[in-house]
Structures are given as structure tokens and as C-alpha cells.
């Protein structure tokens, strides 16, 4: 389960510190019961982000069964996927 307050705290932390492996490592240490993944937005072909910022979108993952799936259900979510937007310029 991911509480909406935690979702906002995590997004604010990334906003302040930037999306990087160091930031995700800090989040993994702080929220050790959740998974944190970073990819490019064009790597995600299904699902809908739970939250969008200028530089990235946050998707939630449900890993309760054998395979992880994207979800927008905070009660079943067990992790975050940060999908970075690519500037096509």
C-alpha cells in the first residue's frame, strides 16, 4: 500500500533533488518496503501515470502476484516507476 501523502512526499523529494540513481537510492533507503524504478517514458506502453511533473511521470506497480503490473490503485501498489520525459529537440 502507498498512501497518497507518501506519494506526494516522494514526488516532492524528486522535484527537489532531481531524478537520478542517487535520489532513488535515498528513496529506497527511506522507504525500504517499496520498489523504485527509473526508465524513459517511451519504455512504458500501457498504463496511466498516477502523477505527472514537467520532467517525469510516476506510475505505480503492484507486485503482489508473480508478475509486476502497473496499477493506479494505491491500496495494492508496492512500488514506483519514474518515467523520464525525453526532450526531442
Task: Explain the overall architecture.
This protein has helices at 4-17, 21-30; strands at residues 35-40, 51-52, 56-62, 69-71, 79-84. The chain is of the alpha+beta class and 89 residues long. The protein has one domain (4-84). Strand 2 and strand 3 form a beta hairpin. The longest helix has 14 residues, at 4-17. The protein is globular. The mean pLDDT is 93.
Record keyword descriptors for this entry.
five-stranded mixed sheet, alpha+beta, 2 helices
Topology readout:
Layout: H1 4-17, H2 21-30, E1 35-40, E2 51-52, E3 56-62, E4 69-71, E5 79-84
Parallel strand pairs: 1-5
Antiparallel strand pairs: 2-3, 3-4, 3-5
Produce a short descriptive summary.
This protein is of the alpha+beta class and 89 residues long.
- Reading the helices and strands in chain order gives HHEEEEE
Radius of gyration: 12 Å
SS class: alpha+beta
In DSSP terms, counting alpha (H) and pi (I) runs of 4 or more, how many helices? 2
| C-alpha end-to-end distance | 38 Å
Low-pLDDT runs:
none
Instruction: Give the helix proportion (percent range).
Output: 25-40%
Give the number of DSSP strands: 5
Mean pLDDT metric: 93
Largest sheet: 5 strands, mixed
Q: Structurally, how many domains make up the residues?
A: 1
Roughly what fraction of the amino acids lie in strands? 25-35%
Query: Globular, elongated, flat, extended or rod-shaped: what is the shape?
Result: globular
Amino acid at each position: 500500500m502507498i498512501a497518497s501523502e507518501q506519494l506526494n512526499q516522494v514526488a516532492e523529494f524528486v522535484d527537489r533533488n532531481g531524478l537520478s540513481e542517487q535520489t532513488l537510492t535515498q528513496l529506497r533507503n527511506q522507504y525500504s518496503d517499496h520498489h523504485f524504478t527509473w526508465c524513459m517514458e517511451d519504455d512504458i506502453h500501457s498504463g496511466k501515470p498516477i502523477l505527472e511533473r514537467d520532467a517525469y511521470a510516476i506510475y505505480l506497480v503492484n507486485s503482489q502476484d508473480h508478475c509486476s503490473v502497473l496499477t493506479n490503485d494505491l491500496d495494492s501498489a508496492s512500488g514506483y516507476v519514474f518515467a523520464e520525459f525525453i526532450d526531442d529537440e
